[in-house]
UniProtKB/TrEMBL annotation, chain A:
Pfam family, one: SBP_bac_1
PANTHER family (UniProt xref): ARABINOSE-BINDING PROTEIN-RELATED, DIACETYLCHITOBIOSE BINDING PROTEIN DASA
Organism: Tessaracoccus antarcticus
Protein name, per record: Extracellular solute-binding protein
Cross-referenced PROSITE patterns: PROKAR_LIPOPROTEIN (PS51257)
Coiled-coil annotated residue ranges, if any: none
Domain of life: Bacteria
Automatic annotation (TrEMBL), chain B:
One Pfam family this sequence matches: BPD_transp_1
Record's bilayer topology term: Multi-pass membrane protein
Annotated protein name in UniProt: Sugar ABC transporter permease
The keyword Ribosomal protein is annotated on this UniProt entry: no
Native source species: Tessaracoccus antarcticus
Top-level taxon: Bacteria
Domain ABC transmembrane type-1, chain residue ranges per copy: 71-283
């Protein structure tokens, strides 16, 4: 009997141990970073007006500028803004949790280009016209290839879609280059990838640069790293992750154009740091800041970091231009952020959130933000600033060629594949043809699973 | 006799907090995972919707090459980290026990890595292994040797995360084995000595056999820790290069948090839990045999 009881306890202990293990793993299920109790309810004044809002944001290089412009909003309106910043992928999780638990933890969501398809298609953002029937798109705001509008029927962003967000940060690719070295060698900023490679090799041969070109090769599952930087080469060769979202859901990356783009990208990486498969955005920035790299394409938001004397050896030496192009011309990728109002928020809070968004994207606020180095989203302000800020001038010149990033409803499934398989190609673990074929197959599977492409 | 008294009085009531905590933080989430594994969960508009799909997610797991790859990678990681940390932990425990000088210092210093937060450990190792700014490559460069991409190829990256995990968690094994070592009756060792056994023979034929149950317990702990491992890989390699170090926890994170595919993520978690349970049962089944041998 004693033995049986002991066995029973053992079995129970083992079973509970299993359950505990399960609990640890299941902790991933839906509770990570749950906002629950620490969400900050929005305050309401005596007359019923919302006097405080909570805004979600990411820990980005432009966070300080955002804080400064929000301080101006608080001063102008008297509304207190609690800015809750999270690491890049943590922000997505926090916002998904808020929707999942209907906690109304945030009055304003911030959505990265790569999450747009997911957030818009799932109805996690409330259409702005539903909040304010008089809402109208301000024509001064840049469109970023339909970034803020969702076409439910096509299941894609579209210039004709319903407005569900406003562009918050106009992060697009620009080319950053050492203008002092370019001047010394008598070079002009490259307009093609071949010119960029030729210039890079010239600077290396002259002993003026350790690296001729620097861009990302590291894959970041859950992020948009090598995929983002490769995309502007891919599209400049005419290949597309998805040919025409909404009408043609097939992929054209496993094609001669896609393979030529990949080969060119590898050529660019060859004149960069060793082991490019480990190069992330921080390493790209460091290579420019240290003075080791001649040039590279990157998001415009990193520019202030090159002008910070505490971090950079190249203050005042960096020039900016539109990214080089391939046979189809330059295709800078939009890596912009939008902000929107979460579904389920009470009407008064929704209206307060929309007011905040409209104020931030107003001409007055955007002008002030641009003067603080912000990567603004109004084309009219960019035009007015002219060439005072070279990175914004390059951004302005690039806007007509901007190509959308991965914005599909199944975008995360695509990124899970592209980040891994592109990284494998860069690392030499798979060939170009096989790697791109694997991505193409995964995209087909994701399209099929989403019930599209029929 | 009242029912409560029959149940053991205070012994019964003292279990209540544990049962409540286990129910809220263990059993309930686990049952939710089980439920989600059998359906498609979508987070639409204002909340979650569940749609029963039977075994569909499990069938998908069976056909998912990346899941199989992650299981294989996790298997390599778990076996390597468990075996290496058991060997090192046992050796360190025996050596510390025999030390005649600075025994207290050794005992303290050896457990330091285990009390450092995984994030800090990752940052430290990034600064050591980073191809551009890492101390190792700086040292190689100073010596005129070619720089290495420690995290740049699949084998190197896997070796690196194994090394980091072993460095971080061997102290836990050390503590368990050392405690067991201190529990060995000194008369047994004296008897071995009287019988003419030298130190090496005593260690091999007396000490290690008597430590086997503790080593088995440490093995279970390390297997579970190996399956749960996340922080170091997420920060050091992010599962790369390619998917060379995409252990199962990284895969589940991606499915659940990036793709927000809660149903499939739950199914993959359940399959993983099942595998861990089988391994734990096997080790526990072997334990009585080890104990009898000891």
């Amino acid at each position: 009997m004693g033995i049986q009881r002991r066995s029973l306890f053992k079995a129970g202990a083992l079973g509970f141990g299993g359950l505990a293990t399960g609990a640890v793993l299941s902790g991933c299920g839906n509770n990570e970073g749950s906002l629950g109790d620490d969400s900050q309810p929005t305050a309401t004044g005596a007359n019923g007006a919302v006097t405080a809002i909570t805004v979600a944001t990411a820990t980005t290089p432009w966070l300080d500028g955002y804080k400064a412009i929000i301080a101006e909003y608080e001063k102008a309106t008297g509304v207190k803004v609690t800015l809750r910043d999270f690491p890049f992928d943590g922000l997505q999780t926090q916002q998904v949790n808020a929707i999942q638990q209907q906690s109304n933890a945030f009055d304003v969501f911030q959505v990265n280009e790569g999450w747009v398809g997911q957030f818009y298609s799932q109805g996690w953002l409330r259409p702005l016209k539903e909040i304010d029937p008089d809402f109208a798109w301000d024509d001064g705001i840049a469109d970023f290839d339909g970034l803020s509008r969702w076409d439910e029927e096509r299941q894609s962003t579209s210039p004709d879609g319903e407005v569900v967000a406003l562009p918050l940060n106009g992060n697009i690719h620009v080319l950053a280059y050492r203008k002092d070295i370019y001047d010394e060698l008598g070079l002009t900023p490259p307009t093609t990838w071949d010119e960029a490679i030729t210039n890079g090799k010239a600077a290396m041969e002259a002993g003026l640069s350790k690296y001729g070109y620097v861009t990302r090769g590291q894959g970041a599952p859950g992020g948009n790293s090598v995929t983002f930087d490769f995309s502007c080469v891919l599209h400049s060769y005419g290949a597309e992750w998805i040919n025409d979202p909404g009408t043609d859901w097939t992929s054209s990356i496993a094609t001669p154009e896609g393979e030529a783009a990949m080969a060119k990208y590898l050529e660019l990486l060859e004149i960069g740091p060793a082991n490019p498969q480990t190069i992330d955005q921080a390493a790209v920035i460091a290579a420019i800041q240290s003075g080791d790299a001649l040039q590279g394409h990157m998001v415009v938001a990193v520019a202030p970091q090159f002008e910070d004397p505490d971090k950079s050896n190249v203050v005042g030496k960096i020039g900016y231009a539109e990214v080089p192009g391939g046979p189809k011309g330059p295709r800078p990728i939009s890596g912009a952020w939008t902000f929107g109002v979460p579904t389920g928020l009470p009407d008064d809070r929704s209206k307060a959130a929309l007011h905040f968004m409209q104020w931030i994207t107003s001409k007055e606020a955007q002008t002030s933000w641009a003067q603080k180095g912000g990567v603004i989203t109004r084309a009219d302000v960019l035009d007015a600033i002219g060439d005072d800020q070279p990175q914004l001038a390059a951004m302005r010149d690039s806007l007509p060629d901007v190509h959308q990033g991965i914005r599909y409803p199944f975008g995360q499934a695509v990124l899970q594949s592209t980040e891994v398989n592109l990284n494998k190609i860069v690392a030499g673990q798979s060939g170009i043809t096989d790697g791109l074929k694997a991505i193409s197959d995964d995209i087909d599977a994701a399209v099929s699973k989403a019930g599209l492409g029929k | 006799m009242s029912a409560i008294r029959r149940l053991g009085g205070f012994r019964f009531w003292s279990l209540i907090p544990f049962v409540v905590v286990a129910a809220v933080f263990g059993i309930y989430p686990f049952l939710r995972v089980v439920q989600m594994a059998f359906g498609h969960v979508s987070v639409r508009g204002g909340g979650m919707t569940f749609e029963w799909r039977g075994l569909e997610n499990f069938h998908r797991a069976l056909e998912d090459d990346l899941f199989h790859h992650s299981l294989a990678i996790s298997g390599i990681f778990v076996v390597a980290t468990t075996v290496i940390s058991l060997v090192l932990g046992t050796a360190l425990a025996i050596l510390t026990d025999r030390a005649t000088k600075m025994q207290n210092v050794a005992r303290n210093v050896l457990v330091w890595p285990a009390i450092i937060a995984p994030v800090v450990v990752s940052v430290v190792w990034v600064l050591i292994l980073n191809p551009q700014i890492g101390v190792l490559n700086q040292a190689l460069s100073t010596l005129g040797l070619p720089e290495q991409g420690w995290l740049g190829d699949g084998v190197g990256a896997m070796a690196a995360i194994i090394a980091v995990d072993v460095w971080h968690w061997t102290p836990i094994v050390y503590l368990l084995i050392y405690s067991a070592l201190k529990g060995i009756d000194s008369e047994v060792l004296e008897a071995a000595s009287v019988d003419g056994a030298n130190r090496s023979q005593t260690t091999r034929h007396v000490v290690i056999p008597m430590l086997l149950p503790a080593i088995a317990a440490a093995a279970v702990l390390r297997v579970v820790m190996g399956v749960k491992a996340f922080d170091e890989m997420y920060l050091l390699t992010r599962g790369g290069p390619g998917d060379s170090t995409t252990i199962i926890s990284l895969l589940i994170r991606g499915i659940v948090f990036d793709e927000v595919d809660l149903g499939y993520g739950s199914a993959v978690s359940l399959v993983t839990i099942g595998i861990v349970l089988v391994m734990a049962v096997l080790i526990f089944a072997v334990r009585p045999i080890l104990r009898r041998r000891a």
